[in-house]
Amino acid sequence: MSANLKTASAAALPDIDALRAQFPILHQQINGKPLVYLDNAASAQRPDCVIDAISQYYRADHANVHRGVHTLSDRATQIFEQARETAARFVNASSSREIVWTRGTTEAINLVAQSYARPKLTAGDEILISWMEHHANIVPWQMVAEQTGARLRVVPISDAGEIDMSAFEQMLGERTRLVAVGHVSNSLGTINPVAEIVRLAHAREVPVLLDGAQAAPHLEIDVQALGCDFYAFSGHKVFGPTGIGVLWARESLLEAMPPWHGGGEMIRTVSFEGSTWNELPFKFEAGTPHIAGAVGLGVALEWFMNQDRAALARHEAQLLAECTACIESLPGLRIVGTAADKVSVVAFVADDIHAHDLGTILDHEGVAIRTGHHCTMPLMERFNVPATARASMAFYNTSAEIESLHAALERAIKLFRA
Amino acid sequence: MAELETLYRQVILDHNRQPRNFRRLAAPCGCTDGINALCGDRLRVCVRMDDEQITEVAFEGSGCAISMASASMMTEAVAGRTREQANAIGEAVTSLLAGRRTDTLPDPLGALAAVREFPSRVKCATLAWEALRGALAGEHAAITTEDDLQQQNRI
Questions:
Q1: Which positions in chain B have a beta carbon within 8 angstroms of at least one beta carbon in chain A?
Q2: For residue A204, which phi and psi values (nearest 5 degrees)?
Q3: Which residue ranges in chain A fall short of pLDDT 50?
């Protein structure tokens, strides 16, 4: 191999050790074994710079935002709004006025259900979702359907875990008022063809909400290229703090939507006869926001955007291939979710070992995975399994950790099949 | 590893692989479902009584090894007992698992004591016992042993 080729191949993959060094939580022992954290789809970990930024904010910069004339309040407002600018760049929004801070994806979807959908829906109208949705993209629509007499319709998926696009096309009808689907499935790892979904929906003038909770840590998000109308994601899944997330929506839609929560910050004037609303996006941010959360998320997104994203994606694709091969090599284990286009999430079941027993045994080996229904009960029924075990990788995971997973699974099999 | 092998002792694995009295009971006097929805554990415990005596007890459903083995061992422990005796055994098991007492249980139930070292799994072991209590009391509503704290850990 020539020296040039060596350099090229070294540049193709990120320096994982250097990345891992920035995530302090990864460097610990669990039950006497090095932690192997493979539960990133439930919540990712955060780098030092995020933890430090939150600490620095409280130590030096905190006051309430958009309120006072004093220096600290100005400083806090500036940092807070700078984070909004960062979030706008992260999803390629045309303006930071389109970025509404929420507690997370769940609250963002509830906001759209109550503020956008509820005033528009009448009895017999339809909301279209898919069979693989997280409960956060099911229940808010059930609630608004209950309130308005609208119907929730569910697009079927294939055995591989892919949306049945011809069924989707057929189900898009005269009464469809909104399509709400996950960009990436948390339980299966499937990357849905969302640009095509948007194209088909828009051809019938139906707006589209994308649940981006699982896409944000893996894919580069460009809401203008996707063409969607609403996009939601959570801070803690994209290396930021918990309790903070983002709703992006087209400015024209946000302008037309009434406020959801009432209180301070979201008003322009208040009198006992009535109140007027603040401009975007503050109209949707009643009460003192999670300032430190937004600051931490801004730093997390900045950090993430500064990485070589293509290299991280290549590394994750390799981890996905290795983890898939690992599960397939073990007798009696079966992968649930075999779509052609996936992020680094591998859910599986064992013939004779319940997911919870696997979870307990793996934990004893230092390997953290998620077991259960993953907030997708209808999907578990679709695949006729009570629960699955799920290994979900982030860019800071390593091939050696997949080998640890393999060894721990072998240990479980040996214990149960002795 | 010692704790793990104590939890998954041979007797537990055996009851999981070949659960006793694992069938639908014809003409039961009482049935109660035990459902830990977050885990995916679903058991139905049914009893047939002759006055105060349990003449037959059976369960069906699916769950993890701990919940299946606990249910299987339960059926063997309470068959032929009176309602009062069965409830006393159930109380002994659940209070031991909940850490409210520290004495030992007669084998093979003693094997369940290892679950105490795995707090997130205690609810698996108590599910069948709570369902039995419901069935003996003639309660039709499904029970769960997933409390709020455990739910937070699973969402």
A1: 1, 3-5, 7-8, 10, 13, 17, 37-42, 62-66, 118, 120-121, 124, 154-155
A2: -105, 15
A3: 1-8
* Chain B closest-CA separation from residue A334 CA (Å): 17
Give the residue numbers of A marked as catalytic.
375
Residue B139: which domain range?
2-149
Convert the pLDDT of each residue in A221-260 to its tens digit: 999 999 999 999 999 999 999 999 999 999 999 999 999 9
CB contact under 8 A, A360 and B39: no
Cβ-Cβ pairs closer than 8 A, A with B, add up to 58
Chain A residues within 8 angstroms (CB to CB) of chain B: 352-357, 360-361, 364, 372-373, 375, 377, 380, 385-387, 415-416, 418
Closest chain A residue to the Cα of B39, Cα to Cα: A372
CATH code, domain with B68: 3.90.1010.10
Q: Which pLDDT belongs to residue A9?
A: 52
B contacts of A357 (beta carbons < 8 Å): 8, 64-66
- pLDDT tens digits, residue range A310-342? 999 999 999 999 999 999 999 999 999 999 999
Tens-digit pLDDT profile for residues B112-133: 999 998 988 999 999 999 999 9
Q: Which fold has domain A50-305?
A: Aspartate Aminotransferase; domain 2 (3.40.640)
Residue B12 lies in a domain: yes
Q: Enumerate the domain spans of chain A.
A: 11-40+309-412, 50-305
Whether B155 is covered by a domain: the verdict is no
Q: How far apart are CA A223 and CA A164, in angstroms?
A: 23
Mean model confidence pLDDT for chain B: 90
Please give the pLDDT value at position B72: 98
Q: How many domains does chain B have?
A: 1
Q: How far is B153 from chain A (nearest CA, A)?
A: 11
ipTM: 0.88
Residue B104: inside a domain: yes
* Contacting residues of A for B38, CB less than 8 Å apart: 372-373
Q: How many residues does chain A have?
A: 418
Q: Which fold has domain A11-40+309-412?
A: Aspartate Aminotransferase, domain 1 (3.90.1150)
